[in-house]
Amino acid sequence: MPTCPYDETKPSFTFVPKKEKLSVPYEDIIFFETGQTHTLFLHTASGIYSFFGTLAQITEFFKEADCFLRVGRSYLINLNHVSGQIGNDLSMSDGSIVQVPLRKQKQTLAAVENWKFRHPDPS
Fold first, then answer.
1. Closest CA to 82 of 73, 95, 66
2. Full-prediction pTM beyond 0.70?
3. Alpha-carbon distance 53 to 40, whole Å?
4. Counting beta carbons within 10 angstroms of the beta carbon of residue 120, is it exposed (0 to 12), middle (13 to 18) or buried (19 or more)?
5. How far apart are CA 115 and CA 38, in angstroms?
6. CB-based contacts of 54: which residues, under 8 Å, 6+ apart?
7. For the chain: N or C, fewer Cβ within 10 A?
């Protein structure tokens, strides 16, 4: 699996939300969020999808893609979609707020800053 930023092969994450298989390019994934009873929410540039699975499984799937960062027990974020910081929480490109657990704030915010330093916004 390639690391981010994405290469020309445009890898995709494939899942089955409601009996139909969908593929979402990595660059469109904003973040994954846990729901209840093994339900995950995938926030993308085009919408939000729910499917069965665990965040541990998703984290393992994306372990080679260095732009994905686990944030506490509830989120796996795409660092390319972090648009800012509100206090110690993260603002994402779709306007969502990802709450960073107190015990992970320093480590998470440092990882975001490091990513932004290594991959500055080209605009």
1. 95
2. yes
3. 6
4. exposed
5. 30
6. 34, 38, 40
7. C
107-118, pLDDT tens digit by residue? Answer: 999 999 999 998
In the sheet that 97-98 helps form, which strands lie side by side, from edge to edge? 82-86, 89-92, 97-98
Number of domains in the chain: 1
User: b/e per residue, 11-26, with b = 16+ CB within 10 A?
Assistant: eebebeeeeeeeebeb
Residue 91: give its domain's CATH number. 2.40.50.1020
Domain membership flag for residue 4: no
Residues of the chain with pLDDT under 50: 1-3, 5-8
In a domain, 86, yes or no: yes
Phi, psi (degrees; rounded to nearest 5) at 16: -125, 95
Q: What's the token pair of residue 7?
A: 């290469």
